[in-house]
Amino acid sequence: MPQHIQIKIVFGLCLLVNLIFWSYFRSTQAEWLNVPPVPSERIAVAFGLGDKQFAYRNIALMIQNLGDSGGQVRSLDDYNYEELGKWLELQNDLDGRSKVMPYLAAYYFGAVQSPQKLVPVIQYLENVGSVGVDEKWRWLAQAIYLARYRLEDMDWALRMAAQLTALQTKIDDLPVWARNMHVMVMSASGEKEAALEIMMQTLESERDKMEPAEILFLADHICNDLLPPTRAAVTPLCIQLKNQ
């Protein structure tokens, strides 16, 4: 048989096999397996060729695009947040200083429509934010927001607010609103009298150490949020604030 005939036969067979393969699998799509199981830190570093930073960046990219693969886009509601929380904690072990994962947790995954799924995310932000270094306390503030307004777990928000307030012993420039976060959460939870007592004691004992703007902030919160109008009208602090 001439060589050119053999080539045509082989080409025809390849084309036939290709057509059969295409007709059989044309309706098949990639299956989304949700959040994969988290490896140990040792295995994660091994996949990063022994470089923690390389592993951290690869995993961050994977997590960011987790639901956008195989030509499909998945809702955050479809994610397994229990597994996702484990990936977030692994990333914190690989690089505790990077802001990439806290940003994703707070502003991306924190937007999930089912608030009950937020528990692992809030736990992660609480762990990251309570260490009292750099400006990580901001992630604790974000965890308080998610617990209070999204999850509506006032007790958890109050516990974290107390942690944030306690960080003033480690962080000299902690803003006044952060230092008094537990008081504001207490007042929101209905414990206004206790919150008022703490605020008044803070003003009495710390006034000499506070900036005028901080004093004004506390006075405004006391007079406009904690005290009823009738009491505020006869309270010297509020009278002074009104006359300023």
Structural description of this entry:
- The chain has 244 residues and is mainly alpha-helical.
- It has a domain at 191-244.
- It has helices at 3-25, 41-47, 52-64, 81-94, 100-108, 119-129, 137-150, 154-166, 176-179, 181-188, 192-206, 212-226, 229-232, 236-243; strands spanning 68-69, 72-73.
- Strands 1-2 form a two-stranded antiparallel ribbon.
- Strand 1 and strand 2 form a beta hairpin.
- Helix 4 (81-94) packs parallel to helix 6, helix 7 packs antiparallel against helix 8 (154-166) and helix 11 runs antiparallel to helix 12.
- The longest helix is centred in the first third of the chain and has 23 residues, at 3-25.
- It is elongated, with a radius of gyration of 28 Å.
- The termini are far apart.
- The model has no long low-confidence stretch (mean pLDDT 85).
* Mass-distribution shape: elongated
Secondary-structure element order, N to C: HHHEEHHHHHHHHHHH
Fraction of residues in β-strands: under 5%
The percent of residues in helical segments reads 55-70%
Question: Quick one: how many beta strands?
Answer: 2
Helix and strand content put the structural class at mainly alpha
Number of helices: 14
Poorly predicted runs: none
Order of the strands making up the biggest sheet: 1-2
Distance between the termini: 107 Å
Query: Radius of gyration from the CA trace?
Result: 28 Å
The largest sheet is: 2 strands, antiparallel
- Overall mean confidence score, pLDDT: 85
